[in-house]
Fold this sequence. Notes:
By secondary structure, the chain is an alpha+beta fold.
Amino acid sequence: MRKEDKQSIIEQLGAKLNEYAHFYLVDVTGLNAEATSSLRRKCFGADIKMVVVKNTLLHKAFEAAEIDYSPLYDVLKGSTAVFFCNTANAPAKLIKEEGKSGVPALKAAYAEEGFYIGADQLDTLCAIKSKNEVIAEVVALLQSPAKNVISSLQSAGQTIHGVLKTLGERPE
């Protein structure tokens, strides 16, 4: 590979590191062409960009980035694919679903501005809530007291109406 080509790939990786908020380093050793193609389709469906890279080029892209990615340098061994995404837990769920046979396996991840090293972090990454999930929980929590007040007022109105009706119908 020519030096110009390598520099172009490093720049493209750097642009993706800036474009996406989260990325996962995944070990894809043992995947044949058919399995890799299937994984790419599933990534595309989950809005994840999958890029298979040379470790040395990814290492240089990390060094050129504004963020210090040095905790990830040790996992750059073997066959590596990078899953870029804007939803922190989407790749973790995909890896957990697809990785039941051991391939693909999580090497490391950069999600929510934190480093997660090792395959044992997969459950932690799956538990991270996306921005939309957090917003939905907050809205539900805010709506709950309002619904309780409205429900109480409606039932109280029914109760008062029933008492007044009973008193009005009672012979004196």
